[in-house]
Design brief:
The chain is an all-alpha fold and 434 residues long. It has 18 helices and 2 strands. A two-stranded antiparallel ribbon has the order 1-2.
Length: 434
């Protein structure tokens, strides 16, 4: 047989027929772009998809808050009055500060049972520094907060380096720091705090811009401006990077919605006295902490640990450092919350940090939407949760209901929040989004 017949043309041996050649790969389209191209219909479809997938966000607590306010208003017309709204906005700040610190810990999937005792110890230490020893009150505040951070870092050290469960080490802290507070106050039992400096700013009679009616509207304007500018900067950054960005129309709608809420709140609060300073500080704190969690490397590390510690460790994250830092943050906010609570009565007493303060702080974080299982939530949970809890307490007080009823209703709301969180996570796993 001749060689030309036995030779096989291998140049096309592995090539499929022309009609079977696969088309060139098409880059997948980000679903967020499709949603925004469809306009309102697209957003509605996306909203339904999230509900079916268990991504409820803050929707349950907002619905609950509307129901609670409606019920109490129907039973007592004073509930939505300006004076009552001022009371709610003022008294939520102290416990809310404790809840902010707990949000950081809960994002890790852990718990801190010591924050109430640390807050009581902070009020006692501040009173001793500023009243007994005559220290500059602002220096006393700084020293007190640093001690709170140090206490939290001690908890984090035992949890991270020694391996003691967070539940146990913070339970020990709950008992130990409460004992130290009793020892610090000694036989006096309580110390009166002067209505000046930081205590005056945190007091019930202290309002933003000295009760100037423009103060509340200035705050609302600043809030809207910050949201608008931050959103536009983020839009420009993402557009430059070639990734999906929020359209200008949506940004303007979000800013408009915040403006409506802000100016209505300003109008209501101004009818009595204005915006309490404690609330202003609390809101500024939330903005800063929200930025830290969502826009910084540290915040992303916190969420990564809450999602999977092993995955975070393999990604090169210093797990021990983040854990200790988070417990330090919780201790610092517990100290700040203790100062807020002391400013409400201008006293540091043996009862500080006792009662149901710990449970209310945990409940606020969870009711507001932060998951007990870690990896999901935000600091605004502290505000939403405290609005629910403080509204229940204030509403039942207006109706002259017994304190026991308050505890039972708050417990029911907390249980409902945890059930919703559990069902939501299960639904997300079923839909492949967990």
């Amino acid at each position: 047989m001749s060689s030309d017949k036995s030779t096989i043309d291998t140049s096309k041996a592995g090539s499929p027929p022309a009609d079977e050649v696969p088309p060139p790969a098409v880059a997948p389209i980000d679903p967020r772009l499709l949603v925004r191209e469809e306009g309102f219909k697209g957003y509605l479809t996306e909203f339904k998809r999230k509900l079916k997938g268990g991504e409820l966000g803050s929707l349950p607590v907002i619905v609950a808050l509307i129901i609670i306010w409606t019920i109490f208003q129907l039973n007592n017309s004073l509930f939505l009055s300006s004076a009552n709204m001022v009371n709610i906005s003022y008294f939520l700040a102290g416990t809310g500060m404790l809840a902010v610190g707990l949000v950081f810990v809960l994002l890790l999937g852990e718990i801190d049972l010591s924050v109430a005792s640390v807050s009581g110890l902070a009020s006692a230490l501040f009173a001793v520094f500023a009243t007994t020893h005559g220290m500059n009150p602002w220096l006393a505040v700084l020293l007190t907060v640093l001690i709170g951070v140090g206490v939290g870092c001690v908890h984090g050290f035992f949890f991270t380096k020694i391996g003691v469960p967070a539940f146990v080490v913070t339970l020990a802290g709950f008992l130990g720091w409460n004992g130290l507070m009793l020892w610090v106050l000694g036989d006096t039992g309580s110390l009166t705090l002067a209505d000046k400096g930081p205590m005056h700013i945190l007091g019930q009679r202290s309002f933003f811009m000295n009760q100037d009616i423009a103060g509340a509207y200035i705050l609302a304007t600043v809030g809207v401006a910050v949201l608008l500018i931050a959103s536009l900067v983020e839009q420009a950054r993402r557009r430059k990077a070639g990734v999906p960005f929020r359209p200008t129309t949506e940004i303007l709608i979000r800013a408009g919605a915040l403006a409506v809420v802000g100016y209505v709140a300003a109008y209501v609060l101004n009818k009595t006295a204005g915006v309490p300073n404690a609330l202003v500080i609390f809101l500024v704190t939330l903005v800063v902490c929200d930025f830290v969690l969502r826009r910084t490397t540290f915040g992303r590390k916190v969420f990564a640990l809450g999602g999977s510690i092993e995955a975070a460790r393999r990604a090169g994250i210093n797990v021990d450092m983040v854990r200790i830092a988070v417990f330090g943050i919780a201790g610092g906010f517990a100290a700040v919350g203790g100062l807020f609570l002391a400013g409400q009565t201008y006293t540091a007493t043996l009862q500080a940090g006792s009662g149901n303060l710990l449970m209310l702080a945990i409940a606020a974080a969870v009711i507001g939407g932060t998951s007990l299982f870690g990896g999901r939530g935000n600091v605004w949970s502290a505000l939403l949760g405290m609005l629910v809890i403080q509204s229940i307490q204030t509403g039942l007080d207006l109706l002259n209901m017994d304190y026991s009823i308050q505890l039972m209703i708050t417990a029911a709301v907390l249980l409902a929040a945890v059930v919703i969180d559990s069902v939501s996570r299960r639904t997300q796993k079923t839909s492949g989004r967990a």
